[in-house]
Amino acid sequence: MIVCKSKREIDLMRKAGKIVADALGMVREIAKKDITTETLNTKLERYVLQKDGIPVFKGYRGYPKSICTSINEEIVHGIPGQRKLCDGDILSVDIGVEYRKYVADAAITILIGDVSEEGKKLVNVCEKSLDRVIKTIHANIKLSEVSRCIQSYVESNGFSVIRDYTGHGIGRKMHEDPQIPNYVSKELLKMDEILLQGITLAIEPMICVGKCDTEVLKNRWTVITKDRKLSAHFEHTIVMTENGADILTV
Ligand code: MF3
Ligand code: CO
């Protein structure tokens, strides 16, 4: 069941969202060649705690860290560790924060040094697919319109959308109804729900250069593309209003 949030709840999500956005702002400054993903995890975790936030990923189904760092063919759920960033890498960082019982979640993909033309285009198309859907949607549209907007933009630019993982409702918990696929399917159209004012969603296009098939590494978390081609991920938490989608992770 999809629940609408009250003004008070949305205010708290916006506070959680500001911590998330500022943490991702730090990533843009400190993620450079030779920095380890563990260093990013340590700095962001410290920042979140200092702002009275709780890093919600840590301990979620046993996940060991406060952020996800997914490099190149890694799509999502990369675990921070001693790996150093290299020139030419594309790095996705995903972080969720709880603030006074309310959660916000966002992700960015950034370029480390000199990235291939293909990598740059992939990251750009992924970011634009999220910007575009956020500018397009508003309360009282159907869920499938969110999915269609992302899919059509990504595919018309020659890339694929990942189908095995989706966006999600969010607020009192990190994952709430509905699931938000980044592509349209028969099943989606069958139970297509109307998105009312006050619904809060984490919209997260995950896209790739090659085929959309995925695999999970032996660490049981990190999701990669089967063909080992590049993947990118952007995410914002938004609230649906009559006038449009209002971004909470800014
Ligand atoms: N943004 C991801 C999601 O919405 C983050 C979950 S990672 C986990 O599913 F570590 F918490 F599982
Ligand atoms: Co999410």
Automatic annotation (TrEMBL):
Identification of the protein by name: Peptidase M24 domain-containing protein
GO terms of biological process kind: proteolysis
The UniProt record lists the keyword Phosphoprotein: no
Segments traversing the membrane: none
Pfam families noted in UniProt: Peptidase_M24
GO MF: metal ion binding; metalloaminopeptidase activity
Protein keywords: Aminopeptidase, Hydrolase, Metal-binding, Protease
CDD domains: MetAP1
PANTHER family in the cross-refs: METHIONINE AMINOPEPTIDASE
Upper taxonomic lineage: unclassified sequences, metagenomes, ecological metagenomes
